[in-house]
Write a structure and sequence with these properties.
The chain is α/β, with parallel strands linked by helices and 114 residues long. It has a single domain, classed as 3-Layer(aba) Sandwich (Rossmann fold), CATH 3.40.50.300. Helix content is 31%, strand content 14%. The protein contains three helices and four strands; from the N terminus they run αβαββαβ. A two-stranded parallel ribbon has the order 1-2. It has a two-stranded parallel ribbon with strand order 3-4. The longest helix has 15 residues.
Length: 114
């Protein structure tokens, strides 16, 4: 799950942690210590997390493993950033990226029926 600010990453991960269990959710942003970011990346890659809430700090440069769905909360600064983020999902030769885009941060996205 991608967000645009550190504050929102912390807020969303806290809310998800309350619903899914703190051990299943992690935040990833540039203000975290490098070691904390690496642990979150390793847990995501190992399949130990239900969700990782990240800023642009996770956008480029690491192999994050198998991701089923990318969610974007709020708009990105450019369409290129959005496409880079969406490209993280189902990243295989035969795979097609899958995403959810939530425009309004005011939307109660965690209560939207699926």
């Amino acid at each position: 799950m991608f967000v645009n600010t550190r504050r929102l990453a912390e807020r969303v991960s806290r809310h998800l942690g309350e619903r899914l269990g703190d051990e299943n959710i992690a935040a990833h942003h540039g203000s975290l210590a490098r070691e904390q970011r690496l642990v979150a990346e390793q847990r995501l890659k190992a399949g130990e997390l239900s969700a990782l809430v990240a800023t642009a700090s996770l956008e480029l440069g690491i192999d994050i493993g198998d991701v089923n769905l990318v969610c974007q909360l709020g708009s990105t600064r450019s369409i290129a950033s959005f496409l880079q983020r969406v490209g993280r999902s189902n990243h295989t030769v035969a795979g097609f990226p899958k995403d959810e885009f939530f425009r309004s941060r005011a939307m109660s996205w965690w209560s939207v029926p699926r």
